[in-house]
Amino acid sequence: MPDDMTRAAHRALVDRILNGEGRAAAQQRAHAFGNDGLSPPLDTLISKVATRPAQVTEADFAAAKALGLSEDQLFELVICAAVGQSARLYEAGLAALAEATVNGEAG
């Protein structure tokens, strides 16, 4: 299991991504982090970043930028999407490890 320092660093990163100062609105960052609640075409870009990053195209960025988002805002939202997906995978891994440890000790 990760030590307390690793978990604290993870929590600090997530807190900074969601609540720190930024160009994108905190609510938009939270939606990008969770990969939900964004309207088209921004939802397409964020979903691809989170689940199919190799499929992200210049057209995806151009469509999102046409909404009036700055490059700084798009950068932040892309980072939120990537960190959000990483956080979900991290938490799933920790849960699986905890379950395996409990099951191993019980068996």
TrEMBL record:
Q: SUPFAM superfamilies, from UniProt?
A: AhpD-like
Q: Which InterPro entries match?
A: AhpD-like
Protein name according to UniProt: Carboxymuconolactone decarboxylase family protein
Recorded source organism is Micromonospora cremea
